[in-house]
Design brief:
By secondary structure, the protein is α/β, with parallel strands linked by helices. The protein is 41% helix and 21% strand. The chain contains eight helices and eight strands, in the order H-E-E-E-H-E-H-E-E-H-E-H-E-H-H-H. It has a six-stranded mixed sheet with strand order 4-1-5-8-6-7, sandwiched between helices. A two-stranded antiparallel ribbon has the order 2-3. The longest helix is centred in the middle third of the chain and has 19 residues. It starts with a helix and ends with a helix. About 6% of the residues have low confidence.
Length: 234
């Protein structure tokens, strides 16, 4: 039964990654926070800590989703660069993450996170994108907003969590240092029991990866249905 799916995927997979669009997938945080500071943007005297650490369980969950996403995107001919592939170290910080995307000349810098709240009833998926700041993000703001819209739409459709909408941010170091379109997807709230059960399950992580994959392909001008074919074939 999988033969038709494999044939469909073969038609869209390039013989070489040389001509493939590059997407940098950035699983948020790492095992340990990094309280050293770095400039919030190029040339700025304002400094922020590199990484204050995520919600409990977030580094592991977002890495699992990101690795599934990498497999889906590569199956349909997208070259994926990961900022990390393990959860075992001190976070590199957000300037370093942006520089990975810049060096790769990525079509999209996709940051994958999960949220937390002191109120366990708080739920929902939302997607962050850079505000316009002259000299920092003015050249990437418009395509980043386009990417945020399609990623948010597809994530909500796939996960079924409440739609928390889009959030324009000027205070994120990873955005301000990025020279390529960038978005940060907050998959859901790990502090909410319902969303935590979903995001810590293999089935929920597959749904999150398919939603992100569909959003990425829509941004790249490709058929989002290929993500479902890749997911079934695997």
């Amino acid at each position: 039964m999988l033969a038709p799916f494999a044939a469909a995927l073969a038609l869209v997979s390039p013989a070489s990654t040389a001509a493939a669009p590059v997407v940098v997938v950035d699983p948020g945080h790492d095992l340990r926070a990094n309280l050293a500071t770095e400039p919030i943007g190029p040339g700025s005297s304002v400094r922020k800590i590199k990484d204050g650490g995520g919600t409990a369980g977030e580094p592991q969950v977002v890495l699992a989703v990101s690795l599934r996403l990498r497999a889906l995107l590569e199956a349909v001919g997208v070259h994926v660069v990961m900022t990390r592939t393990r959860t075992d170290s001190t976070s590199m910080g957000n300037v370093a993450r942006a520089r990975i995307a810049n060096r790769a000349h990525a079509r999209l810098f996709l940051r994958v996170h999960a949220d937390g709240s002191t109120n366990p009833a708080t739920r929902g998926t939302h997607t962050l994108y850079p505000a316009v700041h002259r000299g920092w993000t003015d050249d990437i703001a418009a395509p980043s907003l386009r990417a945020a819209r399609v990623v948010q739409t597809e994530l909500v459709r796939s996960l079924g969590f409440p739609d928390g909408g889009l959030d324009r941010r000027s205070d994120l170091t990873g955005f301000n240092w990025s020279n390529v379109p960038a978005v940060l997807a907050e998959l859901g709230f790990l502090t909410n029991p319902t969303e935590r059960r979903t995001l810590t399950s293999a089935a929920g992580q597959r749904r999150a990866a398919v939603g992100l994959c569909r959003g990425v392909l829509r941004f790249l001008g490709r058929r989002p249905g290929l993500c479902r074919l890749a997911s079934i074939a695997r």
